[in-house]
Design brief:
The chain is mainly β and about 650 residues long. About 5% of the residues lie in helices and about 75% in strands. Among the domains are: about 80 residues, no CATH class; about 120 residues. The strands form three sheets. The chain has a 28-stranded antiparallel beta barrel. The radius of gyration is 30 Å and the shape is globular. The N terminus is likely disordered.
């Protein structure tokens, strides 16, 4: 039966190609049917990849050879009349032969066929009601410098209904998608999404409603997680007159997972008024209530802001705020205000900017317990960067790191590492992990963190924050800046803590841009009770274009971070370079190299990489030859990863 199905597929493909070749005109048209002349593209590629991993408990080498061939037929047209039904389609069959050898003496051979396609049908596109049907199936490759390349196959289908009435335009959308990722990590995900969007624009202003229902099931590393999420968001923007406007927002969110449940309500009201050309005020109110498993939180907040511009140079901002927050285990009241100044003036050699801010805040606490649970704390993880939890004295055994959608639970010492530095807790992304390959820690991976921490006893205190800064731009090429920020706490009532916050941060820097070079230096001294550090960073960027056909760039960076409380030092150095040569009008060579090193008591990692790609075009042919090399050496844990990659690819467009 299997060979019969394959034969049927091949016969269908041959018939489609024959029809295309027999079409002499630009279109295939009949009285009630029209199809544009299809486009036909071919693609062939050959890949070789070798990866070596070694460590205290790991010694593995993988070799993979992949041959890929496929083509793409695409066209569009209409049935009966363009206003009745229009369509477009792509047929994308793909064949892939893979041969993989892993140690010890394990061989894997596979032949995969993907009947890729993309179809879209639009019915009654010019009527007040329009229907759209779509379906597609695609495959993509996820590349990583530190992990095996992964394949992702996604199948999607759905429909949209557009009701284009002037009074209340409405859109209904339904989408179903199945995604499977194979490679270094295997992940299966199935999602159903139903959305409705409505808009009313009239005497009551611009009102928009967006509601969605989403059901997601994810299977990663044998761990299955199901999540159902409902969202409703109602927004209204009402202009009282040319000077005043109000904005109202109502929101509801219910997320039910196999291991958690989150319910949240929110209401926000903002009103702005422009009193005169250079003065305006803004008033706000916000209410939020959340239920997360066994914990509940509720908050009310009021805010006021006045902004005034004097002589086009001095901007003064005055703000006041107050809030009441209740949560399981206690409550907190906050109120305060501040004033900020920003002065800008042109000088004979450039531009001068001065700024200052002063804010005073009073906090009154009531607590029934010392353990406080935190959910959905937003953090950004990097490789070798400093990411510290917002609260001290965190219980490391309760830390859970997830992606922003909470569909993936990452694992400690597999995806990330947790280290303690005094009372603070630091989280570091592990290169090549699921977290890195999925969110790219090299540019910053957004995650949410759940944990509990031991809070200080209840007390009333005041926080005084002030800052001053100066920035000078000279001759449009030289920038200098300095800023001073201080945050102090004053005990008012309750149980006085042993230590009150008295944080001082000094920052200074300069950069010079001259022709083909840019040199920068930054210094930061943080004298804080949380994580006192002293950092400096030197960067150099060189950009050359000696001829019209050659482009060369270098970026070098060297920095050092000193942790004052532990007297430990961490250094960071990197060098990246890029060379692009236009050999002819239809061919070019691109070469890139990189070196990154982080050395300290917490991390000692060296990453090097090199890649080159030659691209050429001749009439309807497109070709490329690509080579990549990456090497990671984690000296602290004795782990090494080395990867070689080579690919030849040829594309051709026949019509």
């Amino acid at each position: 039966m299997l060979w019969k199905k394959q034969c049927c597929k091949h016969v269908t493909i041959l018939i489609l190609i024959a029809i295309i070749l027999l079409m002499g005109d630009n279109v295939l048209a009949r009285k009630y049917f029209m199809m544009e002349r299809p486009e036909l593209d071919f693609k062939f590629s050959y890949e070789i990849e070798n990866e070596e991993r070694s460590g205290p408990n790991l010694n593995r080498e993988d070799s993979t050879m992949t041959f890929f061939e496929g083509f793409n037929i695409s066209a569009g047209g209409w049935v009966y009349h363009p206003a009745l039904l229009s369509y477009k389609f792509e047929f994308i069959p793909q064949w892939e032969q893979l041969s993989q050898k892993t140690e010890p003496d394990e061989k894997i051979k596979s032949r995969n066929f993907l009947e890729g396609y993309l179809t879209e049908v639009t019915i009654l596109q010019h009527k007040p009601y329009t229907f759209r049907l779509f379906a597609d199936r695609t495959r993509s490759t996820i590349n990583s410098n530190f992990a095996q390349r992964s394949k992702n196959e996604t199948s999607t289908y759905g429909t949209s209904v557009l009701l284009k009435y002037m009074v209340l335009p409405t859109t209904f959308d339904y989408t179903h998608s199945d995604s499977r990722q194979t490679g270094f990590f295997d992940t299966d995900e199935e999602t159903d999404l139903l959305q409705i969007q409505m808009r009313y624009f009239g005497h009551l202003g611009d009102t928009r409603l967006k509601a969605s229902w989403k059901d997601t099931n994810t299977d990663t590393r044998g761990q299955r997680l199901g999540i159902k999420e409902q969202k409703v968001d109602l927004t209204n923007h009402f202009a009282v007159n040319s000077r005043g406007a109000a904005r109202t927002n109502l929101g509801y969110r219910l997320t039910e997972g196999d291991f958690f449940e989150l319910e949240r309500y929110n209401f926000t009201e903002n009103f702005s008024w422009k009193h005169r050309k250079n003065m305006s005020t803004n008033y706000s109110y916000r209410y939020v209530k959340s239920n997360f498993e066994t914990t509940t939180s509720e908050s009310n907040a009021l805010g006021f802001n006045l902004k005034h511009l004097l002589y086009e140079n001095l901007t003064t901002t005055i703000n006041a705020n107050g809030s009441n927050n209740k949560y399981t285990g206690g409550s907190e009241n906050e109120y305060g205000g501040g004033v900020n100044f920003d002065y800008v003036r042109r000088i004979p050699w450039g531009r001068l900017n001065l700024h200052s801010n002063h804010n005073y805040q009073v906090t009154e606490e009531e607590k029934t317990g010392n353990n406080v649970g935190i959910q959905d704390e937003s953090q950004t993880l990097t490789i070798g960067g400093i990411t510290v939890l917002d609260n001290n004295n965190a219980d490391t055994s309760t830390i859970q790191v997830r992606n922003v959608l909470r569909t993936i639970l990452y694992q400690e010492d597999v995806d990330y590492r947790v280290t303690e530095s005094g009372s603070s807790v630091r989280i570091i992304c592990i290169p090549g992990s699921l977290l890195d390959t999925g969110l790219n820690c090299s540019t910053g991976a957004p995650v949410v963190v759940d944990y509990s921490f031991i809070s200080d006893p209840a007390l009333d205190f005041a926080t005084f924050t002030r800052g001053y800064g100066i920035k000078l731009n000279l001759w449009s090429v030289w920038n200098l800046y300095y800023s001073y920020n201080r945050r102090t706490e004053e005990f008012l009532a309750g149980n006085e803590p042993d230590v009150l916050i008295d944080d001082i941060i000094n920052s200074a820097g300069t950069d010079v841009t001259w022709k083909w070079s840019k040199t920068g230096f930054a210094f930061r001294d943080s004298d804080t009770i949380n994580l006192p550090t002293r950092e400096w960073d030197l960067t150099e960027t060189l950009t050359f274009r000696p001829t019209e056909n050659i482009f060369l760039s270098f970026l070098g960076r060297y920095g050092e971070t000193e942790f004052k409380d532990t007297l430990e030092t961490e250094t960071f150095s990197s060098l990246t370079s890029s060379l692009q040569v236009l050999i002819s009008r239809k061919s070019r060579l691109t070469v890139r190299g990189s070196f990154h090193e982080v050395e300290g008591s917490l991390d000692n990692i060296v990453n090097t990489g090199f890649s080159a790609i030659y691209e050429i075009a001749y009439r309807r042919l497109r070709g490329s030859v690509q080579y990549g090399f990456s090497d990671e050496d984690d000296k602290k844990f004795g782990e090494k990863v080395r990867n070689h990659y080579f690919m030849v690819e040829v594309k051709t467009s026949q019509f």
